[in-house]
Design goal:
The protein contains seven helices and six strands; from the N terminus they run αβββααβαββααα. With 185 residues, the chain is an alpha+beta fold.
Length: 185
Amino acid sequence: MIRFEEVQMKIAEAAKNHLEIINMQVFMEQFTLDRESRFSLTLPHMEPPYPLSATISFIYDAFQTGITLYEDESEEAALDIDTSLELDFIIKLPHMERHPALEELLEEIEEEFPDTQPMLLTREVFPSDGPSKEYEISYSYTISAEDVEEGDLFSEIFEELKGILELVDERTKDYIDHSWYRSEE
């Protein structure tokens, strides 16, 4: 099984070929030693504050972390171990004045990128000036340990993510609430 840090670097290299990495974080759970890596990405032409962004994360649990340190050559031991990698994607949609037909956007993404099986998530926010909603699109991939070592797979995944972000940008750019982003500066 490939080490956590190697997966992290493969993802970073593939991501920077298609998108701009705006943040990279690593979290380690103190007691279980589970590790999580999170990348925040956006389209290369966007400037802060980023109205459209994506977060990619993956977790190595303590067992996966431990197995990368101790390689057992026994095939029997390898058969009982789940060494797959779960890549979770969350695309944070911009704050919008009027809402485009988000269901139609989701259907278009599903049609253009059928492997993603996206879900629309809605979060209601209650600030002092009145309630509003934030929208995210979520999908994930489960990748086998053998495929993790293949470099082209990550490139294809991030090329697909770039395509989704460009589609979302195109469909939502007329609805973006620019006053919200100016207030953040």
